[in-house]
Amino acid sequence: MRFRLLGPMRIQPGDTPLRIAAPKQRTLLAMLLAQARHTVPVHSLVAEVWDQRPPASAVANLRTYLMRLRHLLSTCGDHPDGERLVTSEGGYLLRVEPAELDLFHFETLSGHGRRSLEQGDLERAHDEYVKALALWRGAAVEDVPLGPALREVVAHLTDRYLSTAEEFTGVQLALGRHAAAAERLRALTVRHPLREGLHGRLMVALYRCGDVAGALAAFGAARQVLADELGVAPGPELHRLHQAILRREPDVELPGGPAAVRVRNDHRRPRQLPREPVVFVGRSTELAQALGVLDRETTAGFGAQVLALHGPAGAGKSALALRAAYLAADHYADGRLYADLQGSAPDRPPLRPVEVLGRFLRALGVPHDDVPATQAEAAAVYQSLLAGRRVLVLLDNAVDAAQVTDLIPGGDGCASLVTSRIMLSTLDAVQISVGMLDPQDSVRMLTLLAGETRVTAEPEAAADLAHLCGHQPLALRIAGARLAGRPDWSLGRFAERLRDRRRLDELQTAGLSVRSGFEVSLASLAESASPVKDVAMRAFLLIGAFDLPEIGIEHAAGLLGVETKVAEAALDELLKARLLEPIGADRFRMDDLLRLFAAELAEPAPM
Fold first, then answer.
1. How many alpha carbons fall within 13 Å on the CB side of residue 198?
2. Above pLDDT 70, what percent of the chain?
3. pTM surpassing 0.70?
4. Contacts of 49 (CB under 8 A, 6+ apart)
5. Which of 11, 27, 179, 596 is the most exposed place for a label (fewest CB within 10 A)?
6. Residue 85 backbone phi and psi in degrees, to 5
């Protein structure tokens, strides 16, 4: 049995591939293959197959697709351990052996080539790279409709392919096979014209073939496409090559140094940041503070810059972090690493640091088989790789300081940006609190999402909507998405829907829910080891039941029937879980939406 992702997706039990005609079924299979040997949750499959816009019947339809896929796989024979497609409580797992999947085979062969290159065995590296690249028959899963996760997979695989191709052409140049390298590089620059490393290699290959005019023309083509597509000029390395060719220097090397050395390092410049938020308003003060840290020139011996953003659920910490990371990206030429640590995911466990270290090390070029198994060893290799480099590391949705300590680079040229709900006070970091938007920025966000014409026509209703959303970015984003999907609704009509006590039911849409964010915060309280967590839970429910926007320590003690010091400790637990916010030395506030959530929980169950 063979499974193929590197090109058109194929299942091939023999000489003839099986055809899967239904587009959604192809997406489902591609998702299972991309996560082969791992259980994929049902919600992830639903989000992928329907691109985060599932119908009400999505789960039932998914089961039908899975049944058909299971039947198809059964015609090809079982896995040695039993059925190919395994159902579990957590989701679905596709059993695939490494030798059966071209992706696993590619990673193995390219890893062998890289190790041979590092050992100086260029001929062996050349042969391994040839076999690895021959597995690609086109763009990854080019015949499959892609959802959000598969789009990331394809972007990652494309980068891995191009990094491997660059390494291979560097080996060809080091072996003196300049014409063969030039032929491959011409084709690659046509398909991937924005990759400057390919243009640089093509210039070197053509120059070493004696084609000076061709090398200069390659620089001109690179300059033109970068200007047309990105509005930027070629980087300093391409300019250096251009000048060296103009001067007819005898030894023109690849950008950055000798061919083999440079090839080893090119693939260690990851670009992992997710897409920059399209709709972003306000936050000028917080953004200025963040850029003051990330744009700061480093001082030798003072270590990496660390910035920590903290705030309640739905406040937009991740969006602010991404905005700051993109604005500061030019300061970190050696790469940008990203990990969602899943500390705010209601249905996924937080990632262990050793898992994240493994991902980062592979992104930095460490072959899969060479990644250390223990956290301490992996952290040591990670710090060594980042030493002397300029890399930005974005660690999103952290649970606590312990989860991120080993992930923060120590090198002077690096920086880390951490987001979390609780303040990670034990981190040696610049701390920035992220709260709700002000009323003007809330209306601006609604305007961008729902349309300027509608907001201009009903300015009072727009302000009312922003207030009913608690000026919370997540709630505003959901409200804007719902309005965009219902152009027949007036803003006033939707505001009336939000006045109902079940407002949180209205503030949810595909993949987004205000309530789920609150549930994670409440779960963190329930899992706390504090001796007063039960008192804190009662306090939370009472604040909702009595609809108290503010509460003081003495008032809380009276409501709870406990001593003042116990009430103070309980309110402090609610603060830690970001279920309350301080407004003075002894007074606290609970946002409207969170208070509605508490009131829901406080309601007696129906008989």
1. 23
2. 94
3. no
4. 24, 27, 28, 31, 58, 62, 65, 147
5. 179
6. -100, 115
Sheet holding 40-41, edge to edge: 40-41, 91-94, 85-87
Find the range with the poorest average confidence among 114-118, 426-430, 442-446, 557-561. Answer: 114-118
Cα separation of 339 and 342, whole Å? 9
Confidence (pLDDT) at 568 = 92
Contact criterion met (CB below 8 Å) for 345 and 397: yes
Residue carrying the six token digits 């194929």: 10
Report which of 299, 354, 344 is spatially closest to residue 321, judged by C-alpha positions.
344
Q: Residue 273 has which token pair?
A: 């940041």
DSSP 3-state of 386? helix
Question: Which one-letter amino acid corresponds to residue 211?
Answer: D
Among 185, 141, 182, 140, residue whose Cα is nearest residue 161: 140
| Interatomic CA distance for residues 185 and 299, integer angstroms | 40
Amino acid at 243: Q
CB 549 within 8 A of CB 591: no
| DSSP letters spanning 186-241 | HHHHHH-TT-HHHHHHHHHHHHHTT-HHHHHHHHHHHHHHHHHHHS----HHHHHH
> What pLDDT is stored for residue 190 in this prediction?
93
pLDDT interval class at 394 (50, 70, 90): very high
Q: Tokens for 22?
A: 């239904």
Rounded Cα distance between 548 and 580, Å, is 12
Question: How many other CB atoms sit within 10 Å of the CB of residue 324?
Answer: 26
Tell me how far apart the alpha carbons of residues 255 and 237 are, in angstroms, rounded to a whole number: 5
Task: State how beta strands 415-420 and 305-310 pair.
Answer: parallel
Taking the chain, what is the end-to-end CA distance rounded to the nearest angstrom?
56
- Asked if 255 contacts 237 with a C-beta cutoff of 8 angstroms, the reply is yes
Q: Is the dihedral of CA 341, 344, 348, 349 positive or negative?
A: positive
Mind listing the pLDDT tens digit for each residue in 32-58?
A: 988 887 888 888 899 999 988 888 888
Q: At residue 249, what is the residue type?
A: E
Which one, of 227, 222, 12, lies nearest residue 102 by Cα? 12
Which of the four pLDDT bands, split at 50, 70 and 90, describes residue 131?
Answer: very high
Please answer whether residues 90 and 39 qualify as being in contact, where contact means their C-beta atoms are separated by less than 8 angstroms: yes
Q: Which two tokens stand for residue 218?
A: 């390659």
How many contiguous H segments (helices) and E segments (strands) does the chain have? 27, 15
> Each residue of 465-490: pLDDT tens digit?
999 999 999 999 999 988 988 888 99
Pairing assessment for the beta strands 430-433 and 305-310 based on DSSP bridges: parallel
pLDDT tops 70 at residue 395? yes
Instruction: Report the alpha-carbon distance of residue 185 to residue 200 in Å, rounded.
Output: 10
pLDDT tens digit sequence for 283-320? 999 999 999 888 766 544 445 789 999 999 899 999 99
Helix (H, G, I), strand (E, B) or coil at 419: strand
For residues 306 and 40, what is the distance between their CA atoms, to the nearest angstrom? 33
Enter the DSSP assignment of 566.
H
pLDDT band at 237 (very low <50, low <70, confident <90, very high): confident
What average pLDDT does the chain have?
86
pLDDT computed for residue 78 by the predictor? 58
Q: How far apart are CA 347 and CA 325, in angstroms?
A: 27
